[in-house]
Amino acid sequence: MWAFEAAERLTRVHTAHGVFDVDLSLSAIEASFGRALARVHRNWLVNAAHIKEFERDGETRVWVGEGLVADGRGLHVPVARERAQQLRDMLLAGATRLRRMSRGEG
Description:
By secondary structure, the protein is an alpha+beta fold. About 20% of the residues lie in helices and about 40% in strands.
């Protein structure tokens, strides 16, 4: 599962195998999956493990799916302005190659 999108009275689940509708609210899904999902917009939850790119060029959005935009399958998901900094901080904190340098290093 890459992302969940609120659409009318259903929720669309975006996966590598297609898009499926479920009769659950985003709030219920968010409560079930906990921290594995990030609320990036009032209509979108994304699986943090599948975020491949964070873009800020006029509007903020993330690419979720397989591979990078040019060579993979996935979708762009809008990020609400008020959630962008929190999402950016979460992604940076989870980056495996980042670490805070202590004084004297570098």
